[in-house]
Amino acid sequence: MSSFPTNAALSRDFPALATRYRLADGRIIRRHYLDSAASTLAMGCARRVVDDLLPHYANTHSQAHFSARIVNQAYDWAHRQVLRWVQADPVCYTAFFAGSGCTAGLNRLARTLAARRPQRRIVLASLMEHHANDLPHRKHAGQVIHLPLSGQAPALGAVDLVALEHLLEQHPGQVNYVAVSAASNVTGIVNPVHDIAALAHAYGAWIVVDASQSLAHALLSINGVGATEQTLDAVVFSGHKLYAPGSPGVAVVRRALLEGGEPDEVGGGMVDDVSLAGYQLTTHFPDREEAGTPNILGAVQLGAVLNALQRVGMATIHAEEQTRLRQLLTGLAAIPGLRIYGDPDLDRTPRLGTVAFNLNGLEHGLVAAALNDYFNVAVRNGCFCAHPYVRELLKPELWALEIDPDAEGAAQRLKSWQGMVRASLGLYTTAEDIAALLAGLRDLQSRPDFYRAHYTADREGNFYHRTFTTPAETLFDPEAALDRALAQLSAMPTVL
């Protein structure tokens, strides 16, 4: 019988939530993890599924023995969970695993789609893209044109649909595809990907969606509202941002875009026959797209996460996260001298659980370091592998410093100021986590001289406490952990 846990029960099933660290003031408290946009924590029940699979572990691509059959079945099950997750018809779409995040899948798609229609040499990519959904297209397409966003910095919104249509009209028959994120990894702002798909398809272009920042927070259907013109051609995402660290990246692609051509990667498992004279590709999906031995355990772990989330219901998960997000935005807006980036109006510009901000007069690196050292709040700072977007959001402030952020050499001069602090939510984020962040920011805002006196910065803009140091190896040393494990093994009685 299938079990249907509550959202509350599932949100507590993350072993890493109990992690505690000693702080600069001597307290030892629980970590408040607000860095889920970089990587989420591991869902316990999904890890336990992998533990149950390990006694049967073997390679795929064989039916010769019990273990091989078990692993093949589990790996196939993982593929089915992915297709079900984005509501993709398995007759029209295939799901394949690649690399350790979305980067490998996006590179493969960029190469494949460029070869598919070499006469169409333009790709339209939004200004808000993570480097993973920007640089592959720059490398493999003839030309990348970046789509502007609605609004004005720092309150930029989603992709400007009028500007998109204008560019499609301007380059008839030349745009191969549109590459766009479902949600920004910097601001959490959501793009209307199905409306973008309809515009792209009206001009004969495809659409590639990077859904890495959205699928842990809200349902994204391949088919939109069911209209054919709104259907997405490819969706790529990262398992490590979906409560399955250690899992591979995933691509769900319309089969027609892959059929009839050579797979981007070749090797074992994707051929029916090989001779000295040549080789015969398999026509079976997803085998033809998954050369070599796959990350079986990671894929099954991800499949288990997707299945568990569906049992709770993404509508429930999304609604509860939006409550936390409103609490966060309201609290941040009440702190004097704090700037939120991206349009903060959730009714006008939908967001998922990611917010970037800065405190007046305090470098983003100093804020992130102090939040960690004094409040055990884990946030990220910098440009988040989205440099053009971050520069655009910061332009009014950088111009005030009389520095053009697009000028040559500006990056080094602005090292400490060209960036933001980012807080990002997950299934496990609580009101207590948000309260800890807000309390830390209020203290930083009220005592900036105290914190500045305790830190020094390096040339890269990283801030270090002058007296409080906690080397990573004192918190976790892999060799020491292995020594303990081997000692326990040695202490076990020998069984003859």
Could you walk me through the main structural features you see in this protein, from its secondary elements to its overall organization?
By secondary structure, this protein is α/β, with parallel strands linked by helices. It has helices spanning 7-11, 44-53, 66-85, 102-116, 135-140, 161-170, 193-202, 296-312, 314-333, 364-375, 387-400, 410-413, 431-446, 448-453, 472-475, 478-491, and strands spanning 20-22, 28-30, 32-33, 93-98, 122-126, 143-147, 175-181, 206-210, 234-238, 249-254, 271-275, 278-281, 338-340, 354-359, 377-378, 380-382, 420-424, 455-457, 463-465. The protein folds into 2 domains: 8-37 and 313-383 and 419-468, Aspartate Aminotransferase, domain 1 (Alpha-Beta Complex), CATH 3.90.1150; 48-311, Aspartate Aminotransferase, domain 2 (3-Layer(aba) Sandwich), CATH 3.40.640.10. It is built from 16 helices and 19 strands. The protein has a 7-stranded mixed beta sheet, sandwiched between helices. A 4-stranded antiparallel beta sheet has the order 13-14-17-16, covered by helices on one side. A two-stranded antiparallel sheet has the order 1-2. The radius of gyration is 24 Å and the shape is globular. It starts with 6 loop residues before the first helix and ends in a 5-residue tail after the last helix.
